[in-house]
Amino acid sequence: MEIDGTDSLTLVFGALADPTRRAILARLTLGDADVSELMKPFNLTQPTISKHLTVLEKAGLVTRGRDAQRRPRKLVATALKDVADWVEPFRRQWESRFDNLDSHLSSMKKKEK
Amino acid sequence: MPPRNHTLANTNVIVDRTNNTIVLTREFTASRELVFEAWTQPEHVARWWDASGNRLKSCEIDLRPGGAFRFVHQGSPEIPPFAGTYRTIAPPGELVFDAMGSIGKVLLQDIDGTTLMTVSIACASAAHLDQFLQMGVDEGTSQTLDNLVAYLGGLKR
Asked: How many domains, chain A?
């Protein structure tokens, strides 16, 4: 990830900051869905869903499918991959650290006994 | 090092862009008292802090509000020491410190004998947050879809 990718990443992180939008993305990982299909599980109105979809589209996380009638939304996997690439090495570093802590806690417990 | 199975991530990371905060969570099958001790006694910190698994070259802890700490890594001069000042020391639930221009907070919650640890790193600005995230980038390798799904799972919590 280049530094100049930060601006688009800021949009992506802004889009991901909302739990409903994350839930919409999680739903789209299972397959494309149109607005009415997205309304049902979230119990939200059509304008609310559309508003969230606009934010997700601007961030490049979601695109519209070809079917003009349904206008199904599609997940843009590469955009999410950019985010995961950005965070994953950081997460892994802390995971190693906490793995060390976990095994050290076990040895502390043994000494206590 | 033997390969570890990381398909199921034990450590979740949430990047809160609104508050410029990184939040890490992890569960341990140990009491809060023990985890708190592991964070605050130099002989313990020295054994786990370095992600590479090496023991720290030196670890100094002046455990009182306003007291300083300094964790120095072995061998790699390019890794700056992790140094700062303690703000709050409230065993066994809370430890707060200033370090590297950010505020670190370790919260330990007891859940039926196991400990849920929440480490939050509050950065001063969005740029500072990016800098923090980048610190782990050199260790990065390729990304699989499994990791992505695990990451999304982490976000949902």
From this structure: 1
What angle do the packed helices A19-28 and A6-16 form, to 10 degrees? Answer: 100
User: What's the predicted TM-score (pTM) here?
Assistant: 0.66
For A80, which residue in chain B has the nearest alpha carbon?
A: B148
pLDDT at B33: 94
Q: How does residue A70 score in pLDDT terms, banded at 50, 70 and 90?
A: confident
Q: How many CB pairs under 8 A join A and B?
A: 128
Mean pLDDT to the nearest integer, B109-121: 93
DSSP state of A108: H
Q: Which residue of B has its CA nearest to A79?
A: B148
**Structural domain span for residue A95:** 3-112
Contact residues on chain A for B12, CB-CB shorter than 8 A: 91
Whether A87 sits inside 8 A of B28 (CB atoms) is no
Q: State yes or no: pLDDT of B101 exceeds 80.
A: yes
Q: Which are the contacts of B58, defined by CB distance < 8 A and separation ≥ 6?
A: B46, B70, B71, B72
CATH of B12-125, one of 3.30.530.20, 3.40.50.1370, 3.40.1190.10, 2.30.30.30: 3.30.530.20
Q: Is B128 on the interface with A (CB under 8 A)?
A: no
Its ipTM equals 0.77
